[in-house]
Amino acid sequence: xxxxxxxxxxxxxxxxxxxxxxxxxxxxxxxxxxxxxxxxxxxxxxxxxxxxxxxxxxxxxxxxxxxxxxxxxxxxxxxxxxxxxxxxxxxxxxxxxxxxxxxxxxxxxxxxxxxxxxxxxxxxxxxxxxxxxxxxxxxxxxxxxxxxxxxxxxxxxxxxxxxxxxxxxxxxxxxxxxxxxxxxxxxxxxxxxxxxxxxxxxxxxxxxxxxxxxxxxxxxxxxxxxxxxxxx
Length: 232
Ligand code: HEC
Ligand code: HEC
Prior knowledge:
Layout: H1 2-14, H2 18-24, H3 26-41, H4 46-52, H5 57-60, H6 79-90, H7 97-103, H8 108-119, H9 133-142, H10 153-156, H11 176-187, E1 195-196, E2 199-200, H12 203-213, H13 218-230
Antiparallel strand pairs: 1-2
Helix pairs in contact: 1-2, 2-12, 3-6, 4-8, 6-7, 6-8, 9-13, 11-12, 11-13
The structure holds heme C (2 copies).
Residues 55-56, 58-60, 70-72, 74, 82, 85-86, 96, 98-99, 102, 114, 169, 181 line the site of one heme C.
């Protein structure tokens, strides 16, 4: 995986903007951060997390399989990514008032337990919209060199499982409505309180997605979101 990630980092770095420079320089740095998080989650307990997750399931669904397309599924998502995002909601760097309220009272131990619990749940899967998934697959797997869009597959994996060691999120079986919303937010610098010139309150990972999402059209986002929703 590493050589491919480096290559993508390089591609972002050489493709013009200062933002891209920031993202490019994180090729090895973000992996280092991810490794630290993975180490830290080893002390999380799925058993303790199961009890603490009762409140979450009202929105994120039974065992983390959301039935509301605005609310993301968490089942099977990697623990490092979940832990990172809960910390971002806890310190209010990722913008969502509902999650601010829920994450405010969570301790670092709660966050680790919840992350491990949801990472061990089984994703039930969803269907893609047949009108869009083929165009989405093409971009997901191959990128588009003419527009400096890297293949999503390089970081999110051939079947969308993400990269748990690096803390890169799983995308498969995620609601397309949620995915479009996130891509739109990354592009417009609205997922985090501050994403500017590669220096982001969401960290280096957020800067990577800001760079990539800002090169996507609304149609690209719709197609990609449809494709990943149906991934098994
Ligand atoms: C009242 C509904 C609601 C409840 C209850 C809730 N969430 Fe959320 N959660 C959301 C919404 C809405 C989002 C999407 C935020 C956005 O669009 O940025 C979200 C996003 C998340 C994310 C980010 C997922 C991703 O793929 O980036 C995580 C992790 C998360 N919630 C964990 C939890 C945990 C753990 C609990 C229980 C302590 C919980 N949530 C309770 C509504 C809820
Ligand atoms: C160089 C690696 C890399 C590439 C290439 C990449 N991503 Fe990402 N992606 C990430 C990282 C890292 C994150 C987590 C960012 C954060 O912390 O906010 C992420 C987050 C996301 C999210 C948010 C997931 C959630 O649950 O909220 C979506 C959606 C996404 N990427 C879609 C894509 C698509 C579509 C492409 C291809 C056009 C793509 N990514 C290409 C690294 C990458």
